Amino acid sequence: MASKEELVAAITDKGAEIRNAKTSGADKDAVKALVGELLALKSKYQEVTGEEYVAPGEQGSKDKSKAKKKDAAAGGAAAAGGGADERKAKKAERMAQKEQANQKAKASKSAGGGSERAYHAVIELGEAMGRREQRVWLRARVHTTRSVGKGAFLLLRQGLATVQAILFAGKGGAGITKDAVKYASGISRESVVDICGTVKLAPVPVESATQSLIEVHVEEIHVVSAAMARLPLLVEDASRPEGEGEEGGAGGDAAAEGEGEEGGAHVGPRVTASTALDYRWIDLRTPANQSIFRIQSGVCQLFRDYLAARGFVEIHSPKLLGGASEGGSNVFTLDYFGSPACLAQSPQLYKQMTAACGGFEKVFEVGPVFRAENSNTHRHLCEFTGLDLEMTIKEHYYEALELFGELFVHIFDRINERYAAELAAIGQQYPFEPLKYCRPTLRLSYYEGMKLLQDAGYDANPAEDLPTEQEKALGRIVREKFGTDFFIMDKYPLAARPFYTMPCPHDPNLSNSFDIFIRGEEIVSGAQRVHDVDLLIERAKWWQIPLASIGSYLDAFRHGAEPHAGGGIGLERVVMLFLGLKNIRKTSMFPRDPKRIAP
């Protein structure tokens, strides 16, 4: 059986739902049904407690009402009768006005008309609006609420922007009542509200708001969507700077109780990475996460725009494959109507078939990549977004290296120019050093990279692929020696590259391949591809790849293919390393790793 406290909370929420339904012009039957539910809850309350439910603060009003009725009775039956008639007339007038307004609203909706409200973005509110005291409508989330005496302060949040809204009973011409103040101060955090008010200059800067020079004096406030009173985590806790406070629980109840009656500073536990991902839709509201994914979007857009301006065509390759993508084994397998199939590890083979064999010459793709690798590391995901490109070459595969270098410098420059506010917001929670990069992009051979490591005391073998720890060490050495966090290294050992990689014409043990690094971690793997079908078959056999599994791919090269090169970029890894973040899950909106497949 529900407790008294649970019933009070349920009655309060149902009352708010009824008010919202009336405000939004819901039909009478819907409102009537909600009222019926409210009455049932009140009846349950009386059954549990043995007393009639009285809303907080209403007992005094009921006593005053009884006293007024007693005085009216003492004033004589005639006077009482006259007052009753007057009250009935006023009530009828109010009902008629309300019905007329509802009919107008319904007529507007049926005619396809919308609201006449002109909503403003919080980020648009500034000093100029405050000087002319402009009236605005806003839709935002309630970040915090604070009641002081006869007034209430609400910090409203919309994306990265916040603004303070205030309302005081009896002040100004807004007609704010005590009940309105009480209603506003009781709105739960993270609720979505519509507010109409006047933008005014703040007497003193509001340090807690991004729009610090102004405040909104509320005239109307409506709850569009109420959040639970107790949340599994608070945005404040999830926004705490890295390393601040102790690692703790989700925030939930303890966090909700951390703020005092007079709006004292909230102190709650630090949100764990697991809890943040379990409730990612709340975690995404933090300023840092809002900024990370806006920058991620910017990287994709800059990638597309740069390549499209240079004649590249965007393609969309299939993600369902018969057999193993690229001939590898780390694939997610599935049943395809009775036949074995897998999810694509990359669009590699289709990039080649369209660019070199299909006549498009220069192609790119932005799409999902699936890797069935049981790697629980800071930089691996089982699903990530690949930014792939493939291009025909005329003289040398360095044409592709030059394009990659110029592409990344363009992306870095524009992110720094266009996303200064987002970079600052990320830096507040996750302090990082801005990326160092040079023009033209530094290029080392694999042998030169190994020599730098050997000179620094590392046991680096030029005949083998570079281990992760040596990659990081090389990144530190390159930064110290050349002053850059971003560089390209080419001529990798042929044995460390896929079967379709072109061998180096000057050394059969090496390949025309390259990797690109940021802060000592790989973000791109690329190469010149084999375009001669006989050599392609020879390399596939060396790797023991069944030729039948790549039959269509081989056929494409039997019909004529141009020399070509390309590479694949991991979007989440690029953003992680550009921002100096420590875990790739921070740059994946809903990460998929060996231990997580939800939400």
TrEMBL record:
Biological process terms in GO annotation: aspartyl-tRNA aminoacylation
Protein family according to the UniProt entry: Belongs to the class-II aminoacyl-tRNA synthetase family. Type 2 subfamily.
Subcellular localization, as worded in the UniProt entry: Cytoplasm
Stretches for region Disordered: 51-113, 239-269
Organism this protein belongs to: Tribonema minus
Catalytic EC class: ligase
Stretches assigned to the Aminoacyl-transfer RNA synthetases class-II family profile domain: 293-591
Comp. bias (Basic and acidic residues): 84-97
WHEP-TRS domain sequence ranges: 3-59
Extent of Low complexity compositional bias: 98-110
Lineage: Eukaryota, Sar, Stramenopiles, Ochrophyta, PX clade
UniProt keyword annotations, A-Z: Aminoacyl-tRNA synthetase, ATP-binding, Cytoplasm, Ligase, Nucleotide-binding, Protein biosynthesis
One Gene Ontology molecular-function label: aspartate-tRNA ligase activity
One Gene Ontology cellular component annotation held by this UniProt entry: cytosol
Domain of life of the organism encoding this protein: Eukaryota
The enzyme's E.C. designation: 6.1.1.12
Catalysed reactions listed for this entry: tRNA(Asp) + L-aspartate + ATP = L-aspartyl-tRNA(Asp) + AMP + diphosphate
Protein name: aspartate--tRNA ligase
Listed CDD domains: AspRS_cyto_N, AsxRS_core
